[in-house]
Amino acid sequence: MALPSINFADIAPQGNPALANIIPLLVAGYKASQVPQQEAAANKHAQLLNALLSTQNQYLPQQLQGEIAGQGLRNTGQQISNQYLPQELQGRITGQNLRNEGQGITNRYLPQELQGQITGQSLRNAGIGIANQYAPQENQARINSLNAACQVAKAKAEMGGGLSGQVGQAVQLQFIKNKFGENSPQYQQAQAAYTASLARYASPLTKLQRDKADIDAGFMPGSGRTQSVDPDKQNLLSNTYALAILKASSDAQTRQKALNAQNIDKTLEMINPKHLTQYAGFVGKIAKDKNAALTPVGGESKNYDNYMQALALTHRLVSQVRQFYGDSIMPSNVDKMLQEFDTGRAMSNPKLAQQTFNTLKRVLNTETGTYTSALKSKSPYEDLNASSKPSRNSNTSADEYNFNHKIGGIE
């Protein structure tokens, strides 16, 4: 860092007067020592000034040209502004005139507008007054409407709700029956409509079954249960429709088997268990043999004749059972059991023999009844046990179980 220069000329003389003359000499010497530095600084300053002037002279034409171009643009803009100034002024004047005209129109119609607003508010106030006046009636009407809707929904729910088709109609018919009674006109009309609806979609077999149900209930078929059937003709009509249903739902072989089942039932009904079992056991065998010895001379008792007739029916029953069951073990089991009534073996007394026969009768009636029922509905198939072997834990009755296992049964 350079030391600051000291100007001794500015310092007042101090001390010895003899030294006063030396001050000017020092000043002159100092100034002489500063001349080279000042010249160098002046030369550097001149160089910078020359460089600046050179640079300025170099870019002066462009600067002047830019200023000239800018001035030209300003002159052009001013010309354009002067050119369109009358239109601008005219537009401003026109706009102001339009605003003035609009304000005049507004001022002219302001009273009518205010009057319209006042009238509108008055009408709204009047409407509010009317609404307030009739609000209780309106609210009551809404309540009544909601109550009616609830009643309709409740009635629909009771009449089957969202159920449709024949199921929904059946539920509705039952609802009408429960509400108005079976003999009411409402139910009779609904019953006729329901029957007519079913008739349109029923298959021939379904129509036959429905007509037979009407006959069995005491009505003419197709009358919607409004016309009673002649009691003298009811049984004949029912049997005729039963035969038609059987023919429509089965083949010839099946119908023949159904006849065999009915023959078994009829023969069982013709056998009197007391007549058949009266000679069971040791004492009974003696009495039977005595009557048998008197038969050639016509000396047998009436009871013995009844026994022989019942025994003959058992032989017919064995043949019918064989026709119904075909190639199975059941006919031989029945034959084996019925022979006991002829010989008296394995039966200690008439009471036990009668119980044994009644067991056989119930078993055969159950078998034939299941078969004939299966021709009319599907319920017998729904009751079948998964196992084909009789069991006390299945749907097999106790009598059938005892018969199958004591006599040999179906394994």
Topology:
Layout: H1 22-158, H2 165-180, H3 185-201, H4 204-216, H5 231-249, H6 252-270, H7 273-277, H8 281-294, H9 302-325, H10 330-343, H11 350-374, H12 379-382, H13 398-406
Summarize the structure.
With 411 residues, the protein is mainly α.
Strand proportion: under 5%
Q: Nearest-angstrom radius of gyration?
A: 67 Å
Low-confidence stretches: 384-397, 406-411
How many strands?
A: 0
What class do helices, strands and sheet pairing give? mainly alpha
Describe this structure in words.
With 411 residues, this protein is an all-alpha fold. The chain is built from 13 helices and no strands. Residues 384-397 and 406-411 have low confidence and may be disordered.
Summarize this structure as a short list of keywords or feature phrases.
411 residues; mainly alpha; 13 helices; elongated; disordered C terminus
